[in-house]
Structure prediction request, 334 residues.
Amino acid sequence: MSFARLIGNERNKQILQRLLGNGRVSATLIFAGPDGVGKRQFALTFAKAANCQKAVGNSFATDSCDVCLTCRRIDEGTYGDVTTIQPDGQFIKIAQTRALAEEVYYRPREGRQRFFIIDEAERLRDEAANSLLKTLEEPPPTSTLILLTSRPNSLLQTIRSRSQRLNFVPLTTAEMESFLTENYPRPAADTALLARVTEGRIGQATAFDLSVYRQERRTLIELLELLASGKDRVRLLKAAEYIGKKERDEFEKELDLMMSLLRDVFLLASGSSQNEIVNVDVADKLEQLAGKIGLARSIGWSEKISEVRRNLRVNINRPVAMEAALLGLAEGRV
Ligand SMILES: [Zn+2]
Prediction:
């Protein structure tokens, strides 16, 4: 995807396009920011623009064309001058960085500029990182190094001081909606929900399964209604069992979803507009629920669920914990 089509992180886009415009692409860069906000995509677009066949004369193109053979091969991951280094097991090992430190000094194989993208750079162990310092400080003019990381503070200070850092942030809801509308058209209600539920992380949005989400959400909304009425103990126990029996990862997701719903209920109960909640497509239903649950209980319930989630670290018995929590909520002990 070209810079023209990428949305969000506009300042980083300007910085990279300026480097291309000034012909100063040989550099060591750190792209820092949460997973899924577009760091890898920006690195690839930068690499494409620097090698794009649409460049005129000696200058670099300031954006990728996305149609020339070079751009397409970089997108496919088959271009000889764009290399991605990923952790081998838990860490990026010294053998990998030594090979990289050597490779960096070779001339481009087929294009104009070589790119080395180090994924999850926080997994560079000290020894491996140290073997790269000289390379990072002054990469040869035909090589560019980009370190991607969600935890920039765990990079060695000696690495950070030798690199230029670009911070990436999640997209705003409006940016995300316009990105999705343009690139992945779907019904407006789906776009609105997806933009909110993935919290501005493009990487998440492209792989997110809305139908599974809606199905789980329906079950949990029913559960909240049941809790609000507080009468049907048998159905409550069944619901506790259904959730409690899930594998740990799935169980965590259920709790997160429940907290997200309770947060929406809290917002609506405190008078926020429907547009401010995550689950906009079921706003009316949640509004009714907010009327039944009320402000105080929405806070108390959310605290209780987050307590169950915290206790997961000590390997609790999930069905038992869920049963105790739900009965507690229904009987007004929270
Ligand atoms: Zn191109």
In short: Strands lie at 28-32, 82-85, 114-118, 143-149, 164-167. The CA atoms of residues 173 and 310 lie 29 Å apart. The first helix runs from residue 10 to 21. The radius of gyration is 25 Å.
